[in-house]
C-alpha cells in the first residue's frame, strides 16, 4: 500500500455493523508493547531524528517508516512501524501546508504515542497515552 492510498475519506461510511472494531485489538497490542514504543519514541527525539515521532499501525503490507514490531514474529494482531513527521511530509501523507496544524495538535511525546492507524476503510491519527 502506498502513502497516497491511506487517506481514503468517506470509505468508512459503509462499514458493517456486526464486525467488531479492529481498534480493540490495537489497544491490546499498544498496551502490550507500551514500554518498547515509549523507548523508540524517546530514542527518535534524543538522537535528533525528529521532535515528532509517529507510529504506524497496520495489518497488511505498508511502506512507511521502519518496522519495529512485526505481528507475525510477535504473535500480535498489528505490525508497528516507527516514522516521523518529516517522513510523512516528504512522502505526501501530510501536505506541507498542513504541517504547522499537525505540530499544533501534536500531543506531548512524553505522555502520548502518536499512532497513524491504517485500516481498509482509511487511516487516521490517534493519540494513545503511555502506561506509566
Tags for this model:
single chain; 132 residues; alpha+beta; 5-stranded mixed β-sheet; 5 strands; globular
Description:
This protein has 132 residues and is of the alpha+beta class. It has one domain (21-129). Helices cover 30% and strands 24% of the residues. It has a five-stranded mixed sheet with strand order 2-3-1-4-5. The longest helix is centred in the first third of the chain and has 13 residues, at 34-46. Mean pLDDT is 88; it is low at 8-16. Residues 1-21 are annotated as: Disordered.
Give a brief description.
This protein is an alpha+beta fold and 132 residues long. 30% of the residues lie in helices and 24% in strands. The protein has one domain (21-129).
What is the topology?
Layout: H1 23-32, H2 34-46, E1 53-58, E2 66-69, H3 71-74, E3 79-84, H4 85-90, H5 99-105, E4 112-119, E5 122-129
Parallel strand pairs: 1-4
Antiparallel strand pairs: 1-3, 2-3, 4-5
C-alpha termini separation: 34 Å
Strand order, largest beta sheet: 2-3-1-4-5
> How much is the radius of gyration in Å?
14 Å
The biggest beta sheet reads: 5 strands, mixed
Question: Which structural category fits the helices and strands?
Answer: alpha+beta
Number of helices: 5
Q: Give the % helix.
A: 25-40%
Shape category:
globular
How many structural units, i.e. domains?
Answer: 1
Mean pLDDT: 88
Ranges where pLDDT stays below 50 over 5 or more residues in a row are 8-16
- Total beta strands: 5
Please trace the helix and strand order, writing H or E for each element: HHEEHEHHEE
* Proportion in β-strands: 15-25%
Amino acid at each position: 500500500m502506498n502513502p497516497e492510498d491511506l487517506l481514503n475519506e468517506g470509505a468508512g461510511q459503509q462499514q458493517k455493523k456486526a464486525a467488531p472494531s479492529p481498534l480493540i485489538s490495537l489497544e491490546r497490542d499498544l498496551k502490550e508493547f507500551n514500554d518498547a514504543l515509549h523507548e523508540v519514541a524517546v530514542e527518535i527525539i534524543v538522537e535528533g531524528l525528529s521532535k515528532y515521532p509517529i507510529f504506524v499501525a497496520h495489518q497488511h503490507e505498508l511502506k512507511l517508516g521502519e518496522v519495529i514490531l512485526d505481528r507475525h514474529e510477535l504473535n500480535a494482531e498489528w505490525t508497528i512501524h516507527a516514522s516521523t513527521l518529516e517522513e510523512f511530509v516528504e512522502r505526501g501523507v501530510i501536505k506541507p501546508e498542513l504541517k504547522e496544524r499537525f505540530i499544533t495538535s501534536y500531543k506531548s511525546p512524553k505522555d502520548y504515542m502518536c499512532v497513524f492507524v491504517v485500516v481498509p476503510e482509511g487511516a487516521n491519527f490517534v493519540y494513545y497515552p503511555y502506561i506509566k
